[in-house]
Amino acid sequence: MGLKENVQEIMEDVAGDAVDISFDTKEILIKDAIFIRDKGCLTKVAYTDIVYLKGDGNYTTLITREKSYSLRNILKEFEEMLPTRQFLRIHKSYIVNLNDIKTISPKEVTVLNEKVPVGRTYYQTLINGIQKLGSNGFD
After folding, report:
1. What is the mean pLDDT of the chain?
2. Residue 22 pLDDT more than 70?
3. Closest CA to 106 of 114, 93, 95, 117
4. Hey, is 130 helix, strand or coil?
5. Which of 51, 35, 34, 33 has the alpha carbon at shortest distance from 43?
6. Closest CA to 53 of 111, 1, 128
7. Element (H, E) at 39
């Protein structure tokens, strides 16, 4: 009998049969990157290398500093996986790395040298989450 079974048996003796102890705590070993499938291999992509992601139905294009990858995952899966302190959904089809934003306007942001659209419903979240000096009527 293993540890899980021993704990389960003790808990059942104390509290009855309605107790279920779950030991499914999956520890993430590499916390600063994701692995994506590319040409039959798992390729490590550091969060700092991701510039933005573009969703298109069941596929997502992941744009890094060096390369872009077309993946058969929906954008929502990446949104749930990526750290919220570093990535933000700014459009129904786009997630950007906040550290790479160079300019912001009501209709688009510039990440590195690429223009990415900003959705109306996401713009206010973006503007409220940044420090601003001066007022140009954007907020």
Report:
1. 86
2. no
3. 117
4. coil
5. 35
6. 111
7. none
